[in-house]
Design goal:
The chain is built from eleven helices and ten strands. By secondary structure, the protein is of the alpha+beta class. The protein has three domains: about 160 residues, GAF domain (Beta-Lactamase, 2-Layer Sandwich); about 55 residues; about 130 residues, 2-Layer Sandwich (Heat Shock Protein 90). The strands form two sheets. Strands 2-1-5-4-3 form a five-stranded antiparallel sheet. The longest helix is centred in the middle third of the chain and has 58 residues.
């Protein structure tokens, strides 16, 4: 049997191919591992990690990440290596850089831009070595550029998320102020109506009753007119009281949440709906908690009257794990949450959710077609630690 002749050319080609494969694997590993790590890190740690990995990948012993803010002020946001060597690198950063750039003099330096989604560079990785190195291969430079792009994307996403959270907090604060202003205005208008128009209407009704009692017998047509006027005055007094109660029920301020909700449930009873209290709590709570839970209950009762077609509503109010919990169950027709109709109902649900969340609470809604609806709101009961 004859040995296969050795081909030095083939061996060299195989060795070169193996080294190329190793280089590609190293580049891929650099990008994959760094991408996985960046998702778990804070922005400062992201910068440090990318700078360290980029230096290690190109065998550089020091580097700096230079960034510019919206006003154009530059700052070094990450450093690697001895402070004396790093200090000189920041001055080399070129904000107009569009692609990786290699410098041989005075030291081996590679600059790699960080570009935002608008294509503008907001930072530059400056990598250097204490002794001269040959320029990295094109694929290596491209790998470091991809690494810089990964960092830029994560930093930009973090900035956008931070901005979004700040806007969300601002919006929540504005909604909270709006609801408080609304409650203050309702309270003011309710008291003004109670002390003004409501008293005038009540006095008018009493005077008309007194006049009717002292009036001599009238012809049938005039007597009918007088009775119609008395009925209209009495109806106006009733409407005024209902309007005041809707704006700011005095029973809420005077007797607390349970009595106010039970008074509100009279609207269900008047509509022929059976109301069952499964549990209740008469303890007074901080004013803003009572107002929020009352408004949620009021809106829930509105939804039952407008949409549910229910014959029974079960209510529960209690304290559980330092939370004030209100639950409203009806045996009505239910609804599908993703149904485009009943926009008013969905707006009411959104308002209830917002009222609960503004106080650090939760609101849930569970509904089944032809199976009724359950609403539950939980709000911290000891908010600010003071009762009204």
């Amino acid at each position: 049997m004859h040995d296969t002749p050795h081909d030095p050319g083939s061996a060299l080609a195989m060795r070169a191919h193996f080294r190329q494969s190793q280089s590609r694997a190293a580049r891929l590993r650099l990008l994959v591992e760094t991408g996985q790590e960046l998702a778990q890190l804070a922005p400062e740690a992201m910068r440090e990690q990318v700078l360290v990995r980029a230096c290690a990948f190109l065998a550089m012993d020091h580097g700096v990440l230079q960034e510019w803010d919206a006003e154009g002020s530059a700052s070094a946001t990450a450093r690697h290596g001895s402070p004396a060597r790093v200090a000189s690198l920041a001055a080399l950063a070129d904000r107009d850089l569009r692609a990786p750039r290699w410098h041989d003099q005075p030291h081996s330096v590679l600059q790699v831009p960080l570009r935002g989604s608008d294509g503008q560079a907001f930072g530059v990785l400056v990598l250097a070595n204490s002794v001269s190195l040959r320029a990295p291969e094109h694929e290596d430079s491209e790998s470091v550029q991809l690494l810089a792009t990964l960092l830029a994307t994560h930093l930009e996403n973090h900035r956008l998320l931070t901005t979004l959270k700040a806007r969300d907090r601002t919006l929540s604060d504005l909604v909270n102020r709006l609801l408080r202003a609304q409650e203050d205005e309702r309270k003011r208008v309710a008291y003004d109506l109670h002390d003004g128009l409501a008293q005038t209407l009540a006095g008018l009704h009493q005077r008309l009753q007194g006049f009717a009692g002292r009036c001599p017998p009238l012809p049938h047509a005039l007597a009918a007119d007088l009775q119609a006027i008395l009925s209209l005055a009495q109806h106006s007094v009733g409407e005024g009281r209902q309007l005041i109660a809707g704006l700011r029920p005095t029973v809420l301020d005077d007797f607390g949440l349970f009595k106010a909700l039970d008074k509100e449930a009279d609207r269900l009873r008047d509509a022929g709906i059976n109301v069952v209290w499964r549990s209740h709590c008469a303890q007074r709570l901080p004013s803003q908690v009572e107002i929020a839970v009352f408004r949620i209950g009021q809106e829930a009762i509105n939804n039952v009257l407008k949409h549910a077609r229910a014959s029974q509503v079960q209510l529960a109010l209690g304290l559980r794990d330092e939370m004030a919990v209100l639950q409203v169950d009806d045996n009505g027709k239910g609804f599908a949450h993703d149904h485009p109709r009943d926009e008013a109902r969905h707006l009411g649900l959104a308002t209830m959710h917002e009222r609960a969340s503004l106080l650090g609470g939760r609101f849930t809604c569970a509904s089944v077609i032809d199976g009724g609806t359950r609403l539950q709101a939980s709000v911290p009961a000891g908010l600010n630690g003071v009762a009204p």
